Structures are given as structure tokens and as C-alpha cells.
Amino acid sequence: MALEDVPAAAQERGYRAIEIDDMHLHAQSIVLQSAGALFMRRYFGKGIRFRDYTSARLLKLHASIQDAGVKLAAWTAHTDFTLIGKAAQWQMHYLEGAIATADDFGARIVCIQAGGSDQPTQDEMMHCIEGLRAAAVLAGRFRTRLALESGSGITRSAKRAAQLLREIDSPYLGACLRIGSEDAVGLAPLAIYVHATAKTFDAQGRAVEVDYPAHLAALQAANYAGGISVRYEGAGNPTLGIMQIAELISALSTSSTSSGSMAL
After folding, report:
1. Cα separation of 154 and 125, whole Å?
2. pLDDT one-digit tens code per residue, 230-240
């Protein structure tokens, strides 16, 4: 499915909002995809990706969202705040483009990642804190909030993710709680957005690897009132997987926690 077809598909399935991950915002030509990726690697080094943030592509995507009558709940950019030098400089320009796009599309949340390793060095932590602090200042210019996702790299540990957020202490930076990631329940009080994931389900429709009741109870105890985007990561039919996660959340929720958004 083309990225521009997602809003209509979401609307047909009853979703009021979607999240767009810019990993799907690649050039529509295979040649341009390859050339762009090669250029980025050679000039900026490992960890930098090519994205098609061109006016023509974004206008087409924006039109598809408007025509479908859905809202953009959040935008996801792929970041690594342990980068240094020209790669770090380029990344800040890339992030500004992502934030500006979300702003133009009406979304006030941009999901990001810390990057780095799950056993970070002091240098990695220092660079990450510096990068996140600069990113929060940038987000503040757009009155947009950055949601730092748990579950990988430095933020594989929810405790470390909370440490970063408290160190920076910005109203423009909060947690994106990834249901299913290590110790994610502890991030509920800091959550401004949620990614609900699952890979497999049992015969009763329960996620096998994830304790959804505990996560949702923690969010409700923290009076979480933001959106929950659904991300199916299994090997089965993605549309069916998304619907199963959404139904599971709906069945377990005792309050209007979920915005009913669908993440690509």
C-alpha cells in the first residue's frame, strides 16, 4: 500500500486518526531511493537516512489526509542523538523538517528515538542529553512536543529514559511509552503518547508477549489522556493485527484512553 493510500484505508476501517512514520517517506523511484541512501552514507556516515521531504510529496500526502477526513495524531522521525559532527548537524535540520511537517499537518506530537546502545558510555549519554536539549528548544519554536520512545538503544531501559527526561526537564519533551518494551509501565507518569505493539495473540485474542492489563492500568492511574497508536509487528496480516490490538485495548480500557489512531 502506498503511503498516500493509508489515510483512506484507515478511515474505511473506522479510525479517526493516524500516525505517519517517515521511514515510509522514501523516494517513489527505486533509483532515487538508492542514490539518496548512498549519498547520505558517504557524506554523513552511518545512521543517516534519506527521506523524501519534498514539497510535491508532502502536498500529495496532506491532500490524501484531508480527502479521507482523518486527523494526523503524530509524526514519527528516526533520530540518534549520540551522533556528533556534521551528522548531528544534519540530523537537527532533518528533525526541524519533520517538526515543521507535523505542524503543517496539524499534529502536535513528533515521536523520536534516543539512539545509541542499550549499555551507553558516558560520552553517549552526554551527546544524547545535549542533542535532546537542543531538540526540545527546536520543538518549542513550533509549540510541538517531542515524544521520546522507549524500547531501544539508550532508552531500552525505561529507568534511563526517565533519567533523560528529568535531566532535560522541558515542557516540549515527554515519553512515548512503547507498550511491550522493558519496564515501560514505569514511564506512565511521563507519557505524552503511546505506541501499542504486539506480535502474536492467543485464542482469546490476548497479546502473548505483552501484559496489556498492567500497562493500561498504569496509564489510567497516571490519568493519561493522550493518544494510543497501534503497531502490529508480527508476521501475519497487518490489517488484522492492528484490528486485534485495537479491540484488545478497547476491551481492557475503562476510560477513553485511546484516540483510536492507527500507526503505519
Report:
1. 8
2. 888 888 888 88
- Kindly state the helix (H) or strand (E) to which residue 195 belongs, with its residue range: strand 191-198
Cα 196 from Cα 186, distance rounded (Å):
15
What pLDDT is recorded for position 36? 59
Burial class (CB in 10 A: 0-12, 13-18, 19+), 132: buried
The Cα–Cα gap between 229 and 203 comes to 23
Query: Helix, strand, or coil here: 240?
Result: helix
Q: Is the pTM of this model over 0.85?
A: yes
Partnered with residue 195 across adjacent β-strands are 178, 229
Q: Whole-angstrom Cα distance, residue 188 to residue 217?
A: 9
CATH architecture of 3-263: Alpha-Beta Barrel (3.20)
Domain locations in the chain as residue ranges? 3-263
CA 164 to chain centre: 17
Contact indicator for 88, 131 with CB cutoff of 8 Å: yes
Q: Could you give the CA distance from residue 44 to residue 49 in angstroms, rounded to a whole number?
A: 9
Single-letter amino acid code for the residue at 71: K
User: Do residues 180 and 198 make contact, with C-beta atoms less than 8 angstroms apart?
Assistant: yes
